[in-house]
Structure formats: C-alpha cells, structure tokens
Specification:
The complex is a heterodimer of chains A (233) and B (244). By secondary structure, chain A is of the alpha+beta class. Chain A has one domain: Glutamine Phosphoribosylpyrophosphate, subunit 1, domain 1. Chain A has a six-stranded antiparallel β-sheet, covered by helices on one side. Chain A is globular and about 55 Å long. Chain B has 244 residues and is an alpha+beta fold. Chain B has a single domain, classed as Aminohydrolase, N-terminal nucleophile (Ntn) domain (Glutamine Phosphoribosylpyrophosphate, subunit 1, domain 1, 4-Layer Sandwich), CATH 3.60.20. In chain B, 34% of the residues lie in helices and 26% in strands. Chain B contains six helices and twelve strands. In chain B, the strands form three sheets. Chain B has a six-stranded antiparallel β-sheet, covered by helices on one side. Chain B has a four-stranded antiparallel β-sheet with strand order 3-4-5-6, covered by helices on one side. In chain B, strands 9-10 form a two-stranded antiparallel sheet. Chain B starts with a strand and ends in a 10-residue tail after the last helix. The chains are: A alpha+beta (233), B alpha+beta (244). At the A-B interface, β12 and α5 of A face α1, β12, α5 and α6 of B.
Chain lengths: 233, 244
C-alpha cells in the first residue's frame, strides 16, 4: 500500500516525486529517479531492478510508453506491480497490475501521474490530484506536498476496510544538477505526512543558506549562527 | 559540524557510508555516494554535492582514489573549505581536510575505511568512530557503520562556541552487488538523530528480508499487513500500537 505522484513543473521543467506508504524508508529508492532522464516509480510488490532498467531505456531515448512495454515483456509478475514513468518532457504513462490489491489505480494528466494501491478508494487518487492542481503557480515541491496531503485527507490507505497509517514518505525534486535539488525523507513516523510538511517548511528557511554555503563557503555564516528568517510574502 | 565514516566490508566487498551532523539534512548531501563494485566518495565540511557524482564516475573510469582526490580538489576553487573522502572497491583510500575546515577537524584513513569530521570535540571523536567501526568485524557493514556513529556521539560528537552541538540528522547507506543501495536509512531534523537512526535501523531489519522476498516472489508473498501483524506479535513490547 502506497500512494505517489510524479510530475514535471511546466514552468521550470523540474521533475519531482512525492510518495508515502506503510512500508518503512520509502525514500531509499534512489534508483527510481535520474536527473536529466526521468522518474520510474514502481510500487505494490515492486522489483527494485525494474526502475533502473526503465531509466536506462529512457536515457537511450525510448518514450515512457515504449519503456513500459519493454518492462512488461520482461516481467512474469507484471500484474503484481504498479508503475508510473515520466520523462524530461513530461510524457507520462502508468500501469496498475490486476493483482496490486484493493483499491488500486492511477490517473495521468498533463505532466503528472498519481497512483496508489491498498488505498481507501479512488477518492485517495482524486485527493492527490486535487492537492496537486490546487495552485498551479506554486513551486513543484509545494504542489507535491499538497498532493500527499490531499491523498491523506481523502482517506489514504486501507486494507480489509481498515485504515492503514503512512509510516514513511519521500519528496525529491530534480533540477539540472546530477544531485537532487530537494530531497526530504521521513523513514518511520507515526504522523508521516505532517512530519514531511514540517520538514519542507523548515527546509525552505534554510535552502538559500545551504545552497550559498556550498557555493561560497568563504562568505558563509557558521550554521550555529544562522537564524532562519521566515520568507517575506 | 559533521562526522562520517566510509568503509568497505572486507568479507563481502560491500561499500558504505555513515554520517551524522548538526546540519538537519545531511542525508540530502549524501545521495548516491556509494556505487556497487566502484567505490564511495563524500564531500563534507561546506558540502559540495556535485563532487560526489564526479568522484564516483572517476573511480568507475579506473582512477585511483589518490588521483580522484587530486582531480576533485583541482576542480573546486573552494576546496580549502571541503573535507573529502574517497575509497575504491578494493578499500584503497584517500582523504583531504581543507585548511579552512573548521576545528577540530581531521581525518583518519585506514585500509578499507576513512573516518573524518569537522567541529568535533577533538581527535578522540574520530578515534572513537574508528574504534566503533573496528569493534565487531564479523557484523554486517550497516551495523558497523551505525556503531561507529554511536561511538562518535558518545565520545562527545560536535562542538561549536564551546557547547555541544546535537546531532540533528544522520544517515547510513550501503551498496552491495546491485545498482541500488542494499541499505539506505535517514533521519532528518531530529533532536537525537543518532538514537532515532538506531530505532529506524532496528525496525527496518525486521522488514528487510520480507521486502526482498516479496519482490522476487509476489505470487507467494504475504501482504505487508499480514507480515506487520506477525512482526507485532513477535514484539509486543517494542512496538507501540499506533505504529502497527
């Protein structure tokens, strides 16, 4: 049971992923994103080799649709997997195998795919999309965060009619560098989505400081002297 | 205001990193720093995340750690502010502590591992990290890395302006034979990040084999809820009900 959104920002062309799940440490899946290539996020009973292979194909120039058909042909257990793939141009494709557990499904739109399994119902995916679309002018990280909150608020995960808590979450945004621009993780928490929101808000206060310290360390304030200032609206 | 260890397991060849910091997102700067069958490289101090990918690519091209280090230093006008560790898949290492890295700072390089840090309580913190790592050579690498971090914490960790700086984030990553990490756990923005990393690590250990098996044989796999119920039944005291 997991729900995710993968998306491309139409203004900045940045790519991002937001995901949350009952499983522990979902942000360890580094292999699912590749800067300047795309994102392939497999879940349900995912095979970890699946995403790097998909990204290798994307990097060679195959479209997400072609990649998905290769992945399918290469996997005897494709009906147990759920996958979303997005490339640098925002082309998206998603697959939900018949054996992914109830409720499972996906929706794709311009430059995004929202998908999940072990969900309370289609309302969770609808909630993700509602959150994502709420403010199209917002930075991608905020839209991904709103998407997770939308999915959570709409009921999140449930199996056998019982609500299942989110225990880990991951929010990563890629810009042009070959390392993530934003990479936030909650690996095991009782209130995961709220904890991710806390991390994101805190990160925003530090992002310019951290970036500048990397680039111009000779001018940087010591971190213990840095007092974060809330952004001026 | 960070201490870390990179190491190669001499039994299995697995490659790993353990890191703890006063910075609250240190794991974000340690993404993809280990590559199976290639090596590990990390740049800390004033981190430069671009260094890590470049260094690992150079290792993959066959440069020795010493050559990689020279290239990384030559490529960065701010290398005086960086602390860099490089290790290849055979456990050969090279390390650099820039002259502008904040005291106490330094590195300790041995066969198959490098411990390094800045703004530490003293040399003894690094000694403790290395001793923690060496304590049980028969343990799995992720366990040894975590014990090393715990030893660094217990030896006094980081200091700034004469006071102890808490560990606010921590991470462990280990690459085995696959092109994704075997073990990759993180704690961000926490008051006791090393303790929290231990908690996450112990919990993840219960699930690690299940996650691998489920992927390989989904047809025969228990659902995660069934598995989680088994875990909970085995551990009635350790697992609060709200986490099940």
């Amino acid at each position: 049971m997991t729900y995710s959104i993968i998306a491309r920002c139409p203004r900045t062309e940045r790519l991002g992923i937001g995901t949350t799940t009952f499983s522990l440490a979902c942000g360890r899946r580094n292999e699912s994103v590749r800067p300047n290539v795309g994102i392939s996020k497999s879940q349900a009973m995912y095979l970890r080799a699946h995403d790097p292979r998909a990204l290798n194909l994307l990097a060679q120039g195959f479209t997400p649709r072609s990649v998905m058909s290769v992945v399918e042909a290469n996997d005897d257990d494709f009906m147990y997997r759920q996958t979303g793939i997005i490339d640098r141009e925002g082309n998206v494709v998603a697959h939900t195998g018949a054996k992914c557990g109830q409720w499972a499904g996906h929706t794709t739109g311009p430059y995004y795919a929202a998908f999940g399994n072990g969900l309370a119902g289609p309302q969770t995916v609808a909630g993700i999309i509602e959150g994502f679309l709420a403010d199209a002018a917002a930075p991608l990280e905020d839209r991904l965060m709103s998407a997770l909150e939308g999915g959570c608020k709409a009921g999140g995960q449930a199996t056998n009619g019982i609500h299942r808590p989110e225990r880990s979450a991951w929010l990563r945004v890629l810009d042009r560098q070959d390392y993530p621009e934003i990479d936030l993780r909650v690996d095991l928490h009782a209130d995961t989505v709220a904890e991710m929101r806390r991390l994101l808000e805190r990160f925003k206060l530090y992002r310019d400081y951290y970036r500048e310290r990397c680039r111009n360390p000779h001018d940087a304030l010591p971190e213990e002297d840095f007092v974060p200032q809330p952004a001026v609206a | 205001m960070t201490y870390c260890i990179i190491a190669r397991c001499p039994r299995t060849g697995r490659l790993g990193l353990g890191v703890a910091s006063y910075s609250f997102l240190i794991g974000m700067y340690c993404s993809d720093v280990t590559r199976a069958n290639t090596g590990v490289s990390i740049t800390l101090g004033a981190p430069n995340p671009g260094n890590n990918a470049l260094a690992v690519r150079l290792l993959a091209q066959g440069f020795t750690p010493k050559q990689v280090l020279a290239q990384i230093i030559g490529n960065d006008v701010n290398s005086d502010y960086r602390q860099i560790g490089v290790m290849d898949r055979e456990g050969n290492v090279a390390a650099h502590t820039g002259t502008m890295t904040r005291p106490w700072c330094g590195h300790l390089a041995g066969k198959g591992h490098v411990a390094m840090g800045d703004m530490l309580a003293g040399q003894h913190v690094l000694d403790a990290v290395a001793e923690g790592y060496a304590a049980d050579p028969a343990a799995v690498l992720e366990e040894r890395l975590l014990v090393a971090l715990e030893a660094g914490r217990d030896a006094g960790g980081q200091v700034g302006k004469g006071r102890r700086l808490p560990e606010r984030s921590a991470a462990i990553a280990v690459a085995g034979i696959f092109d994704y990490p075997d073990w990759d756990l993180r704690v961000d923005a926490h008051d006791e990040a090393v303790e929290e990393l231990r908690r996450v690590h112990e919990e993840f250990k219960l699930y690690a084999d299940y996650y691998v098996e489920r992927a390989r044989s989904p047809r025969n796999a228990k659902t995660q809820m069934e598995f989680a119920d088994m875990v909970a039944a085995d551990q009635p005291k350790e697992m609060p009900r709200e986490m099940i």
